[in-house]
């Protein structure tokens, strides 16, 4: 099952055959999510680096997704988002509302573009203003998401046709439960899946 989540918490079910979803306006302000306490992302990363023994074939998004997922809220600043990406070695940062529902996503490329990196800068903002600007000003929304039981082939097809580098894995109510990136799929193909390609 696939959904598209908007900033108001409404979802639209869809199938991989659906193409061309129009963007929506930037998110309304939400309360920041406090990711404090022990860092589950680091524990998840440590588990991934340990050798795995598979007893069944990789078939679904849930088989390859990374969980738990580190996320911020759209109210966090660009500086906070950039620091999180750099310190945690991430390329995609999910943005969630107060109850943990997906409202957007921001990538390192989005923030490079915003901060005047190689991809261009945000006009009319000083570096100090830009660092303090909320992530909602640069996030991508609506967000394509999939359920953990979505077939991996369908997820890969959506990512290819929609030109997205990461698929957020959510429960039916929009709760963020995992993330699946192009790198995860390639890693699974190399290490865990039988290689049987056709052209």
Name its key features:
alpha+beta; 9 strands; 5-stranded mixed β-sheet; 199 residues; 30% helix; single chain; two-stranded antiparallel sheet; CBS-domain
Description:
The protein is of the alpha+beta class. It has a domain at 57-191: CBS-domain (Roll). The protein has 7 helices and 9 strands; from the N terminus they run E-E-H-H-H-E-E-H-E-E-H-E-H-E-E-H. It has helices spanning 40-49, 61-64, 78-88, 108-114, 127-132, 152-162, 182-191, and strands at 2-5, 11-14, 92-96, 102-107, 115-117, 120-121, 143-146, 166-170, 176-181. The strands form 3 sheets. A 5-stranded mixed sheet has the order 2-1-7-8-9. The longest helix has 11 residues, at 78-88. It is globular. The protein starts with a strand and ends in an 8-residue tail after the last helix. The model is unreliable at 18-38 and 40-51 (pLDDT under 50).
């Amino acid at each position: 099952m696939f959904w598209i989540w908007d900033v108001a918490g409404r979802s639209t079910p869809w199938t991989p055959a659906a193409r061309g979803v129009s963007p929506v306006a930037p998110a309304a302000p939400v309360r920041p999510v406090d990711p404090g306490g022990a860092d589950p992302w680091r524990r998840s990363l440590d588990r991934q680096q340990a050798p795995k023994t598979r007893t069944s074939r990789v078939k679904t998004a849930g088989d390859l997704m990374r969980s738990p997922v580190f996320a911020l809220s759209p109210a966090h600043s660009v500086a906070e988002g950039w620091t999180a990406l750099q310190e945690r070695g991430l390329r995609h940062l999910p943005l969630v509302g107060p109850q943990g529902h997906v409202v957007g996503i921001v990538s390192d490329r989005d923030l490079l573009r915003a901060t005047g990196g190689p991809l261009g800068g945000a006009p009319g903002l000083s570096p100090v203003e830009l660092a303090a600007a909320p992530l909602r000003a640069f996030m991508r929304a609506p967000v394509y998401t999939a359920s953990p039981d979505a077939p991996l082939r369908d997820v890969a097809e959506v990512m290819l046709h929609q030109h997205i580098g990461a698929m957020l894995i959510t429960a039916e109510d929009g709760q963020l439960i995992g993330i699946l990136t192009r790198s995860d799929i390639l890693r699974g193909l190399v290490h865990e899946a039988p290689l049987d390609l056709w052209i």
